[in-house]
Amino acid sequence: MAKRTLLSFSPQIKVIDATLRDGGLVNNFYFQDDFVKKLYQMNLQAGVDYMEFGYKASKEIFDKTKFGKWKFCDEKDIRDIVGDNNTDLKIAVMADVGRTDVEKDIIPKDESVIDMVRVASYINTIPAAIDMVEDCAKKGYETTVNIMAISHANDSDLEEALELIGNSSADGVYLVDSYGSLYPEQIRRLSDKYLNMAAKYGKFVGIHAHNNQQLAFANTIDAVACGVNYLDATVNSLGRGAGNCPLELLLGFLKNPKYKLHAVLKFIEEEMLKLKESGLVWGYDIPYLITGVLDRHPSGAIDCIKKERKDYANIYLELMGLE
């Protein structure tokens, strides 16, 4: 497809607000209902296309007393926020391979207010992800496969995975920079690879970027320029570790007049500042930079942040295995 420019108007682009789901990794999904209702209203006012509420995690695997309700996304809990959701905003949830019992925990679409199930998988569990997709598709849901930690996948494995997804019932596939380690040039190359498969099989492509090297926004808009249409973002970059592509930056960039930046800025002013004042910590910091540069899972950096460590040179050596 033709490359887009900064002034391109692309009505086929969809914005997915992942604030509750990725942000839930910061506070174990303990968001107050009032916050969630206001976030839902913000998305309606801002013209966002999808709101991802959280995970469909198995209560047989995870202790429900240790997590807030958005770790599990029970139908009743979502309906307490959105009612029947008689709006243009679609509702999404995420289902992790090995952590979700799709047969038990995901009811038929005609009984649910959820529209899309996004199946998260590493490259080596793609066959299991496709089984989950087929189950959800038969139940009537839109589906995606989100290939996590793509920076650790070799080309031949990725090509095989994309072919398997292409031949499945999945509506789309996501390029996920889990460790915030990828650079725009790599995003462009990967986007082209994903888009070639998508064109062959009639799928869409999405991107989910992390901000360890402060490239989540740059990588997202580079993917847009290549033709990627489904764009994940979170309000004020709220998300695990360094966070994600900020929704406010993304809506400010997109040229579709349906998106209203003012609503997001108002929500940041009235709700996100309070989250920070309460002690919730997220966003770019030097330890996350280090894990991004080293293409590592951010768990080591998260531990350093919790301990309020500022010995960045030592952290670098430790994570390199030199100390």
Could you explain the architecture of this structure?
The protein is an alpha/beta fold. The chain folds into two domains: 14-277, TIM Barrel (Alpha-Beta Barrel); 286-320, no CATH class. It has 13 helices and eight strands. The protein has an eight-stranded parallel β-barrel, surrounded by four helices. Helix 7 links the parallel strand 6 (172-177) and strand 7 (204-209). Helix 2 (33-46) runs antiparallel to helix 10 and helix 6 (155-166) runs parallel beside helix 7 (184-201). The longest helix has 18 residues, at 184-201. It is globular. It starts with 13 loop residues before the first strand and ends with a helix. The model has no long low-confidence stretch (mean pLDDT 96).
Notable features of this structure?
8-stranded parallel β-barrel; 43% helix; single chain; alpha/beta; TIM Barrel; 323 residues; 2 domains
Would you kindly provide a brief summary of this structure?
With 323 residues, this protein is of the alpha/beta class. It is built from 13 helices and eight strands.
